[in-house]
Amino acid sequence: MTISIKDVARAAGVSPATVSRALGGGPVSAELQAQVEAAVKATGYRPNLSARRLRSRHSQTIGLIVADISNPFFTAVARAVEDSAYKAGLRVILCNTDENPQKEAMYLQLMEEERVTGVIFAPTRASVDKLARATYNFPIVLIDRAGRAGGRDAVVLDNFAAADMLVAHLVAQGYRRITGLFGNASTTGIERHDGYVAAMQRAGLTPAARFIAPTVEAAEAETRHWFKQGTAPEAVIASNGLMLMGVVRAMLAAGKKIPEDMAIAGFDNESWTELAGPGLTVIEQPVADLGRAAMQLLMDRLDAPDAPMRKLVLGGRCVVRGSTGRVTGAAG
Amino acid sequence: MTISIKDVARAAGVSPATVSRALGGGPVSAELQAQVEAAVKATGYRPNLSARRLRSRHSQTIGLIVADISNPFFTAVARAVEDSAYKAGLRVILCNTDENPQKEAMYLQLMEEERVTGVIFAPTRASVDKLARATYNFPIVLIDRAGRAGGRDAVVLDNFAAADMLVAHLVAQGYRRITGLFGNASTTGIERHDGYVAAMQRAGLTPAARFIAPTVEAAEAETRHWFKQGTAPEAVIASNGLMLMGVVRAMLAAGKKIPEDMAIAGFDNESWTELAGPGLTVIEQPVADLGRAAMQLLMDRLDAPDAPMRKLVLGGRCVVRGSTGRVTGAAG
DNA sequence: GATGACACTGAAAACGATTTCATACACGCT
DNA sequence: AGCGTGTATGAAATCGTTTTCAGTGTCATC
Lengths: 332, 332
What we know:
The structure is a homodimer.
Chain A lengths: L4 H8 L3 H9 L5 H14 L5 H8 L4 E6 L5 H16 L3 E6 L4 H14 L3 E4 L3 H9 L6 E4 L9 E5 L1 H14 L5 E6 L3 H16 L5 E5 L3 H14 L5 E4 L2 H13 L9 E5 L13 E4 L2 H17 L7 E4 L2 E3 L13
Parallel strand pairs in A: 1-2, 1-3, 3-4, 4-5, 5-11, 6-7, 6-8, 8-9, 9-10
Antiparallel strand pairs in A: 10-12
Helix pairs in contact in A: 1-2, 1-3, 2-3, 5-12, 8-9, 10-11
Chain B binds a DNA duplex through helix 2 and helix 4.
């Protein structure tokens, strides 16, 4: 037997409306306020959030849709989003899409059924295009991946510049045959690829990029293949933390030395990158800022639904470690 | 203007009750079923989950309360829980307590307001005791941390045996002065400590344990301190993945060699442990099984509220790597 | 002393679904 | 023909809140 606001009202000798007002900050005399508070304590009343949401038509809930929360990048973003949301009195529904467009569509539909206030979304490439056409009952802020699809708020890394920076560093260290591994699921991979190509060409070098699934396994297989075939480049850049890990695993398994047998650079300054091999050179993304900013954009949008679209581009920081040490032998 | 079940009913030429039945699998003639489906499509109707939950009194939602989702151990458990829950048609509300008992209490209250079906909870030591006394409107399955508090379903690692196994391995490798670092927030730390002490005593060695905050930072500070003071042991075991990382960081920063300057063993077979230094010897917890089993216990409890309490104890696996290599010099 | 403004309160409607209850109809059986 | 059984349907009640609406009482103002 669950106790409702009516029970509290009876216990306090007031109407349910007054209880509601006392709890929700409405105009209530100090006397009745006290009576209600006492009655709430006495009865052990807990408001029913479903009823509240139904009647008030405020879900006080946002959706956070990402590829996979076990990817440390998204974990960090998610914590920042949750903390900001909590401070704003909002709950968060977390959804993992595994880069599957069907799951993305399903979760967006779920968000409609939950009548969420807004959504923060890291879409696959396939969905970015669909999003441009579709219209939802809630604002959406894209995160990490925006593409050129206008019309949506977004907060992303300056992927082009970051990849450029990484390649420039490798070139300055004396590397020439530099391969790039890029994820094939998101626009992020494309942008990083473009930055890589631009920097290579500026240095008079020939780009050699591979688009693969953005997973540890795919990158590991690719790298293993190189060493088996004897086609490994002098250096490789990996376009996210998972792929970076795959490359390192393959090298250790094959007994190869970093950076002597192959130099490595990548994205996402996850804590293990400091510990693996001689330390890995990476682009550090401001993950917490990314999450906070997304939340801020969402709140601003709720305040001003008709304000112009805003795309926030954050800069990365290049953290140099041993995995891109200077070439020592006779560089080809 | 949002469209409700009444609009669909009007469009289909039936009553709202029939629409509800058509959508929910009630007895409806094939003819009306088709009409309703067409009307749903035509109107773009999306059921309002708050209304549904209010009336049906089924939230179809469970709570998952853990210390910190950015701890890879909890990340892995959470994904397993979410996948199982999703298959069972349940949504998951994720809560991070940061090992703070106040947050734990607050989230448990939130779960009551959400009228969740059940809760999976990794409590701090402080809350384990409180839980034994308290009573909630939903079943709770404890995970990772149960203590001796009976009366609650739980799924945990055999912490005592695992710590014992780790120490036995170190002893077999020739180490004698073995220190243990244990987390002070959970019962898990205590159980692992007890296993450590038992194994040390069985080997005729003197235990030397430290209880500290279960964080990278605390373990790093402690280890740095040892090397500064020259009091580092021959080997250390760290009671979770975060503390293990702290130890490794401190050693690398101080320019110390693993295992020559100090051997390391720990808990949680996170992917980076294979990559750091010579590879780290760890206890692998069956994280996915842990999450799945917790979900299963919860469902069983919902089916049979009065069945006897069940505590499921899973065994760990010892993964031996280079960080506990055999002692080479003249062991003292 | 009438009047308007203001602050507080309760009765009742509303939110959007599911569920209960009553009814209508078809069917098989005696 | 009469009757029980079972299935499909709609009207209306219901879930637990918030919100609207209509007072009521107090107070300052003219």
